[in-house]
From TrEMBL, chain A:
Gene Ontology MF terms in the entry: identical protein binding
Record protein name field: Cell division topological specificity factor
Keywords assigned: Cell cycle, Cell division
Known function: Prevents the cell division inhibition by proteins MinC and MinD at internal division sites while permitting inhibition at polar sites. This ensures cell division at the proper site by restricting the formation of a division septum at the midpoint of the long axis of the cell.
Automatic annotation (TrEMBL), chain B:
Presence of the UniProt keyword ATP-binding in the record: yes
Entry binding sites for ATP: 11-18
Recorded family membership: Belongs to the ParA family. MinD subfamily.
CDD domains: MinD (cd02036)
Name by which UniProt lists this protein: Septum site-determining protein MinD
Function: ATPase required for the correct placement of the division site. Cell division inhibitors MinC and MinD act in concert to form an inhibitor capable of blocking formation of the polar Z ring septums. Rapidly oscillates between the poles of the cell to destabilize FtsZ filaments that have formed before they mature into polar Z rings.
GO CC term (a single one): cytosol
Superkingdom of the source species: Bacteria
Length: 83, 270
């Protein structure tokens, strides 16, 4: 709180800050919770296979599972380096 | 068949044992035969809160391992005669609680009791998972504070994936939010998450709001479940929560600050 705020009698509403931070982290953690347990390992192995041919960094392979009512879709995104 | 209620939170120190003591006492006071089990192996404390620490002879682990019968281990409450306490072991490893062992004890208790209240240890490890595994209902104790709310959401995830009901594909565990240590004056100043904020984030039905109160410490000092402090705000808030748990409709109280008038400021020193 700044010197001026003190005289204006204004205080920062920290509860709102808490709420916003919580909404973001909780949504993020719920998203992870719904992913199957094998996903990190799958991602790691795919990364290793690709590295046999091209050098890429960890964040260039993204694996996600989208679940619908009747089926799940495994979405695999690989970014290759520019040559 | 008994109804099995777990009192859980993830985070420690939010009021699980206080809540277990009050909810079990409240259920028993209404004539339901109730047992409250301490699952916190190695850090037994429910006995102190219930004022029976000097009457513990055998414990939960003794019963699981066949070293004592349930009747030898159960302690009958001296205030409410339909209430029994099954204390945790103070000396054993947490792993002494096996799924099969816990199931056997719960099944045996189910034959004679109406309600089984399971007081969970903090954390999300073995002890906490054993406490919630057989639950039909869960009271998720939360403080209006960031780490507690996040941990409550984590424990909700575990209830939805690792409880017996989840594993067997049965109806899900019924979840209830119990907000404790609530300070309406600080909420009004924008210094504390409001009931509405926490409900919105966790998205489970509200069982009750327990105001932050000096009565809680005074009661635990003496081993009195705070629900027996019938004149106090916290005691009445717990009584409301128990009534709602039993399906009664009760309006929420103690959610706004009591503004002190000029005279009470003058005579009570602020």
């Amino acid at each position: 709180m700044s010197f001026l705020d003190y005289f204006k009698g204004k205080k920062k509403n920290t509860a709102n800050v808490a709420k916003e931070r919580l909404q973001i982290i909780v949504a993020h953690e719920r998203g992870q919770r719904e992913q199957p347990d094998y996903l990190p390992k799958l991602q790691q192995e795919i990364l290793e296979v690709i590295r046999k041919y091209v050098q890429i960094s960890d964040d260039m392979v993204q694996v996600e599972v989208d679940r619908n009512d009747s089926c799940s879709v495994l979405e695999l995104n690989v970014t290759l380096p520019e040559r | 068949m008994a109804r099995i209620i777990v009192v859980t939170s993830g985070k420690g120190g939010v009021g699980k044992t206080t809540t277990s003591a009050s909810i079990s006492t409240g259920l028993a006071k209404r004539g339901h035969k109730t047992v409250v089990i301490d699952f916190d192996v190695g850090l037994r404390n429910l006995d102190l809160i219930m004022n029976c620490e000097r009457r513990v002879v055998y414990d939960f682990v003794n019963v699981i391992q066949g070293e004592a019968t349930l009747n030898q281990a159960l302690i009958r409450d001296k205030r409410v005669d339909t209430l029994y306490i099954l204390p945790a072991s103070q000396t054993r490893e947490k792993e002494a609680l096996t799924k099969e062992g816990v199931e056997r004890v719960i099944n045996e208790l189910s034959e004679t009791f109406d309600y089984i209240v399971c007081d969970s240890p903090a954390g999300i490890e073995h002890g906490a998972q054993m406490a919630l595994y057989y639950a039909d209902e869960a009271v998720v104790v939360t403080n209006p504070e960031v780490s507690s709310v996040r941990d409550s959401d984590r424990i909700l995830g575990i209830l939805q994936s690792k409880s017996r009901r989840a594993e067997m594909g049965q109806d899900p565990v019924r979840e209830h939010l119990l907000l404790t240590r609530y300070n309406p004056a600080r909420v009004e100043k924008g210094e504390m998450l409001s009931v509405g904020d926490v409900e919105e984030i966790l998205a489970i039905p509200l069982l009750g709001v327990i105001p932050e109160s000096q009565v809680v410490l005074n009661a635990s000092n003496q081993g009195v479940p705070v629900i027996l402090e019938e004149e106090s705000d916290a005691g009445q808030a717990y009584d409301d929560a128990v009534a709602r748990l039993l399906g009664e409709e009760r309006e929420h109280r103690f959610m706004t600050s009591q503004k002190k008038g000029f005279f009470s400021r003058m005579f009570k020193g602020g």
